[in-house]
Design brief:
This protein is α+β, with helices and mostly antiparallel strands. It contains 16 helices and twelve strands. The relative contact order is 0.07.
Length: 444
């Protein structure tokens, strides 16, 4: 008769087998969570790194011309898609961490008797891990070393952008639709309605100048820098290597009190030359190092509101700022005088030459320069500021509006009709629209 196996030995062997299997599964799960946390941390840090790059950082990256640096510039050319890619990838990794943590937690602990307590413990533990290791720490490091982090993550982000392109493009388009619906945060009150309200509240003692001043004050907080800046093609600036004699010639011809100075091209502004700083050295030799007199340039984004910029001008005691676009390139220049003119109207001194941006042919027909700002166009033609909101896109000038509507540079003589306006292209070259004839119809 065979002797039966010891039940205690069988139970021990079974428990050892279960424990071994349990440990392997738990370790694999925790290892996978660690990997996902690392990926999530890299993506979170990328968001801070890429969008913390300043104009100076980008100028330095352009000079290095490395493969990773080219990837950085390529990613920054489409910032909305880059941000969408980062958000999608980060959420995918975080969701995967949460799902995996549920499996690992159930393998480690049996909380069937206290399911609510188990759920709370899991939520607190996972939230702590994600916040500390996938959000706070990488973002703190990336904010201190944006160039290094961006360079490290540029290649992975290019790959992710390609993989997630369908989702990120859909997200960007959806956001664009929402932005259009919000009308770029413009006030719902049109200038026509505002004028009517001012007429109602005004009495016989209120002059037309007072009304214009009130309109300017009301609109002041809703105007962006790009709407009032001087475009880069109209800015007088000098190269850093310009000789002293040539510099003096440029200053005499321009007649400005401050001139931007750039190195190689206008996208790399080195500083601002104050003409008053140059006065004690006018009798110096032609090899005088005038570059040592440069003051630091103040850079502002074209999306900044002018009421905020006015406060910064007052705090920093400066009168001029270089306007940069979303890619770090120079878009133009804005001065304190440009801001104040939005309230009090044109400010001209005895040295200013009146610049004609339009000519009036008859009661309803004008010829405008392409660089005419849309706000000035509305003021001159007596129409509402928001009349082009549906088609203007990012345009702030009349030429930009035509390009938004045509999506190409039109030929000379091309005609475009929009609402009560008939546009006819009068002057154009291969690069820009120079002049536009506009007829304002009264029958619409």
């Amino acid at each position: 008769m065979e002797e039966s196996a010891d039940p205690y030995l069988c139970l021990s062997a079974h428990l050892l087998t279960l424990l071994s299997q349990f440990s392997i599964n738990a370790l694999l799960g925790m290892g996978a969570m660690a990997v996902l946390l690392f990926f999530s941390a890299m993506i979170s840090g990328s968001e801070i790194a890429f969008f913390s790059l300043t104009h100076t950082h980008i100028a330095g990256i352009r000079e290095l011309k490395k493969a990773n640096d080219k990837n950085i510039l390529s990613l920054l050319e489409r910032p909305n898609q880059l941000l969408a890619t980062i958000l999608i990838a980060n959420n995918v990794f975080n969701i995967a961490i949460i799902i995996l943590s549920t499996v690992v937690f159930r393998a480690l602990f049996d909380m069937q008797m206290h399911p609510v307590l188990g759920f709370l413990i899991q939520v607190v533990a996972v939230t702590f891990l994600i916040l500390l290791f996938a959000e706070v720490l990488p973002k703190v490091y990336a904010s201190k070393h944006p160039v290094r982090f961006s360079s490290m993550m540029s290649s992975p982000m290019v790959i992710l952008r390609r993989l997630l392109s369908p989702l990120s493009s859909l997200l960007v388009k959806t956001t664009r639709i929402i932005d259009t619906r919000m009308e770029k945060k413009r006030p719902n009150l049109s200038m026509h309605e505002l004028s009517h309200a001012l007429e109602i509240t005004s009495d016989d003692k209120t002059t037309e100048e007072d009304k214009k001043l009130l309109r300017g004050i009301v609109r002041f907080g809703n105007i962006y820098v790009r709407e009032i800046m001087k475009s880069r093609v109209d800015v007088v600036a000098v190269d850093h290597n310009t000789g002293f004699e040539k510099l003096l010639e440029v200053i005499r011809e321009a007649g400005y009190s401050r001139i931007p100075v750039y190195r190689e091209n206008f996208d790399n502004v080195e500083g601002i030359l104050y003409i008053k700083d140059l006065l004690p050295y006018l009798d110096k030799e032609v090899d005088f190092k005038w570059q040592e007199l440069l003051r630091n340039a103040f850079f502002v984004p074209e999306s900044k509101r002018i009421n905020d910029l006015l406060k910064e001008f007052q705090e920093k005691k400066i009168h001029m700022a270089i306007v940069v676009d979303e890619y770090g390139g120079t878009a133009g220049l804005v001065t304190l005088e440009d801001i104040l003119e939005e309230i009090v109207g044109e400010i001209n001194d005895e040295f200013d030459m009146e610049e004609a941006i339009y000519s009036k042919i008859d009661a309803g027909t004008y010829v405008f320069e392409g660089k005419t700002l849309l706000k000035d166009f509305s003021r001159i033609t007596g129409t509402d500021d928001d009349v082009f909101n549906e088609v203007r896109g990012e345009a702030d000038t009349l030429a930009g509006l035509i390009l938004e509507m045509k999506q190409e540079i039109p030929f000379k003589g091309a005609r475009i009709r929009y609402k009560q306006f008939d546009f006819e292209i009068e002057g154009v070259d291969k690069r820009r629209i120079k002049s536009i004839k506009v007829k304002v119809r009264k029958d619409v």
